[in-house]
Specification:
The protein is mostly beta strands and 80 residues long. The protein contains no helices and 4 strands. It has strands spanning 32-40, 46-54, 69-70, 73-74. The protein has a two-stranded antiparallel sheet with strand order 1-2. Strands 3-4 form a two-stranded antiparallel ribbon.
Length: 80
């Protein structure tokens, strides 16, 4: 579960980390992730990126590889 933070000051090249709440509780599991990022471009126009990921819950099967992209977001790490 990720709490919304509407006052973040993120610029080009910054990272956003997603942490699984199910990793800390073996009684919880999920089969996916849905996220949305709303930002301003250099011309102060709204840009929006929405994505959904379904996954198998098999730890050895990663949904992305480092360098994959989702719109203007680039996957940079598999670390926990």
């Amino acid at each position: 579960k990720i709490e919304s933070k509407s006052d973040l000051n993120i610029t080009d090249g910054d990272n956003i980390a997603f942490t699984s709440y199910t990793a800390a509780d073996p009684n919880e599991y999920s089969g996916g992730l849905q996220a949305e990022i709303i930002a301003l471009n250099i011309e102060l126009q709204n840009v929006r990126l929405r994505w959904s990921v379904r996954y198998s819950n098999i730890c050895e099967v990663l949904p992305y590889s480092v360098g994959n992209s989702l719109g203007w977001m680039v996957y940079v790490s598999d670390s926990l």
